[in-house]
C-alpha cells in the first residue's frame, strides 16, 4: 500500500518573477530557502518556506501559457494558508494593498475563511484554525 507522509511542496509558475517574489516574501512573509537562476532555461527557481517548512517552489519561464482559472477551471482550485486570527490576517493583507473577499463561514466545519489572489490571479485562501 502507498503510504504518503505529507505534501512536500507546491510549485507555482509566475508571469513576473520580481513581482511574485516580492508578493510571496514581503506580503505573505515566506522565507527564501534558495534562489537559483537556470540560464539554459532563462528561468528562476525560488524555494520558499513557511515556519521553517519548505512549501513553495516559485518558477519563472520566458512565456508561460495562461491558465484558465475562473469560474471553476480544471486543475488546482486554490492554495490555502492556515491562520489563527482571520480578521488580523485579512487586515494585514489589506494594509499591503491586497484585496480580500468578505470573510465567510465554511458550512461544514463552521470555520471562517476568505480568498485573495497572487499577482497572477492564483486563488489563495486564509483559513482560520
Automatic annotation (TrEMBL):
It comes from Chitinophaga skermanii. GO terms for molecular function: metal ion binding. Residues 6-129 form the VOC domain. Keywords: Metal-binding. Coiled coil: none annotated. It comes from the Bacteria. This is Glyoxylase I family protein. PROSITE patterns: VOC. Gene3D superfamilies: 2,3-Dihydroxybiphenyl 1,2-Dioxygenase, domain 1. The keyword Isomerase does not apply. InterPro entries: Fosfomycin_Res_Enzymes, Glyas_Bleomycin-R_OHBP_Dase, Glyas_Fos-R_dOase_dom, VOC_core, YwkD-like_dom.
